[in-house]
């Protein structure tokens, strides 16, 4: 009995201890009853991920499945991923791809969810979607937080449609299109700047929001433009008397109808001006009776108005102020200055006086842009200035003269070899010449009887004529000195009788048009 009672007391103590442990540790009994059923923690029991506000990272819930039976030797290591799953992942915006894993995943992270998004349809599959251009990283974790996959995702624009558009609209051009983070790069060679501008305008609508277009296209043959300018000054009274009209009144470029100089009948346009391979027929019906003009009603695309300037210059009716010839690359600016600089004192903050120089004279700035093989867009800014003491300023005992300036700023489009004129820049100078008898002429009131005044009003008009030409580099073999074709005779007697020359004279070119006034075009 004693043994039975002691055993019963021991059993009761064990039961009490078990009940106390159960009260202190809930679930311990279940763990003690099923120790072999413990597996990997699921996503439901894992603590929630709370990133900091400044960190952009997304975690994707991976669906769980029943654990697979392992072999008696232990867990089998999964095979390594193929090489195609280890490098950077390139995606187009709006497109995605599926990544297959060799082991069950527990968590999937993407560093920047604004660039790419990830979804896990199964524990061994991850879908990556490109959202916008940029670069981010995708992490896939497995059991025991082991990294199963880490890949850099590069999202770029889908340029297939843009490339197809460029190849269809510009089939003969070699243009490459490259995408970058927030930018689109155009490279290659084009024949002229007009094609480059057309490509830029065609690609611009395909740009995304806040995306910039970088133009690195080059012209395969650098185009140069030579500008011949004549800046002249003509007496306004003379121009009114002679009926000079500097304005081209035709609707097309290069059509001149108005009378430019009186003295001879105009050319009759009722007959063809020129015929043949290089000729153009203009059956324009204009009146010819009682009309006198050097270039009156002459209509052609290659009128050279410099002949008129030469004629007026020889008669002393016109003064050529400057005649510069400048060459500039397409899109670049060339400058010309014929004049000088005069000093202007400038007061500094510390009381010292410095000197600055102001330009005056004939100045020209022009910027050509070759649009096509025969079309040129030209921005011209001519300026003529001279020192004018009538607008001088005196400060600190120093007299600073002013400037009288005549300036024009215009942009035109014309063909190579065509001319245009800028007129209407007028200047009026009034002078008063007083002649009087010394002494007596200075007496008030009575001095008017012994003096005379001669008022002169001189008006001048500034006329600027501009002619651009497309120029190309010359083959060095075509550049020859005039003395290269000359064979020196052995004696003066031989030269007198033979007049030897190494080459035959050049053959005459095509016949040119001879105008009624005697000028050849």
From TrEMBL:
Keyword Ribonucleoprotein: no
Domain spans labelled Pilus formation protein N-terminal: 88-156
InterPro entries reported for this sequence: Bact_Secretion_Sys_Channel, GspD/PilQ, T2SS-T3SS_pil_N, T2SS/T3SS_dom
Domain Type II/III secretion system secretin-like residues, every copy: 311-471
Signal peptide location: 1-32
GO BP annotations, alphabetical order: protein secretion
GO cellular component: type II protein secretion system complex
Membrane-spanning parts: none
Chain intervals for the UniProt region annotation (Disordered): 59-79, 480-511
Keywords in alphabetical order: Signal
Highest taxon above the source species: Bacteria
Positions with biased composition (Polar residues): 484-500
Family: Belongs to the bacterial secretin family.
Record-given protein name: Type II and III secretion system protein
The organism of origin for this protein: Caballeronia terrestris
């Amino acid at each position: 009995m004693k043994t039975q009672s002691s055993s019963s007391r021991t059993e009761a103590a064990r039961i009490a201890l078990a009940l106390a442990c159960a009260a202190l540790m809930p679930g311990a009994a279940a763990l003690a009853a099923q120790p072999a059923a413990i597996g990997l923690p699921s996503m439901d029991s894992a603590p929630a991920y709370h990133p900091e506000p400044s960190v952009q990272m997304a975690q994707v819930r991976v669906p769980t499945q029943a654990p697979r039976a392992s072999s008696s030797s232990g867990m089998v290591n999964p095979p390594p991923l193929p090489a195609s799953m280890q490098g950077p992942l390139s995606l187009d915006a709006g497109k995605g791809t599926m990544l297959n894993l060799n082991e069950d995943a527990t968590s999937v992270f993407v560093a920047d969810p604004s660039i790419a998004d990830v979804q896990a349809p199964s524990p061994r599959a991850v879908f990556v979607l490109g959202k916008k251009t940029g670069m981010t990283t995708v992490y896939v974790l497995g059991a025991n937080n082991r990294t199963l996959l880490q890949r850099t995702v590069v999202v770029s624009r889908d340029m297939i449609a843009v490339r197809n558009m460029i190849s269809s609209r510009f089939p003969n051009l070699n243009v490459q299109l490259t995408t970058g983070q927030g930018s689109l790069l155009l490279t290659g060679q084009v024949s002229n700047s007009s094609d480059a501008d057309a490509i830029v305008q065609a690609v611009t609508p395909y740009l995304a929001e806040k995306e910039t277009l970088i133009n690195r296209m080059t012209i395969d043959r650098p185009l140069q433009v030579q500008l011949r300018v004549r800046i002249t000054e003509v007496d306004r009274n003379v121009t009114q008397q002679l009926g000079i009209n500097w304005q081209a009144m035709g609707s097309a470029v290069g059509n001149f109808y108005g009378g430019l100089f009186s003295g001879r009948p105009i050319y009759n346009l009722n007959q063809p001006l020129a015929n043949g391979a290089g000729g153009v027929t203009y059956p324009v019906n204009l009146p010819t009776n009682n009309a006198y003009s050097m270039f009156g009603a002459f209509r052609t695309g290659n009128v050279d108005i410099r002949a008129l300037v030469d004629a007026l210059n020889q008669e002393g009716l016109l003064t050529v102020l400057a005649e510069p010839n400048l060459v500039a690359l397409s899109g670049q600016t060339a400058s010309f200055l014929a004049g000088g600089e005069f000093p202007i004192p400038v007061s500094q903050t510390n009381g010292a006086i410095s000197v600055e120089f102001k330009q005056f004279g004939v100045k020209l700035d022009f910027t050509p842009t070759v649009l096509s093989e025969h079309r040129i867009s030209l921005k011209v800014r001519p300026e003529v200035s001279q020192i004018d003491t009538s607008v001088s300023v005196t400060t600190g005992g120093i007299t600073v003269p002013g400037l009288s300036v005549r300036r024009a700023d215009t942009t035109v489009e014309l063909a190579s070899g065509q001319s245009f004129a800028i007129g209407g820049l007028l200047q009026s100078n009034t002078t008063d010449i007083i002649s009087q008898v010394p002494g007596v002429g200075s007496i008030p009131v009575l001095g008017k009887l012994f003096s005379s005044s001669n008022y002169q009003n001189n008006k001048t008009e500034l006329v600027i004529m501009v002619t651009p030409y497309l120029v190309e580099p010359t083959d060095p073999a075509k550049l020859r000195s005039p003395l290269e074709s000359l064979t020196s005779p052995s004696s003066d007697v031989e030269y007198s009788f033979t007049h030897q020359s190494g080459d035959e004279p050049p053959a005459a070119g095509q016949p040119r048009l001879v105008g009624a006034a005697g000028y050849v075009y």
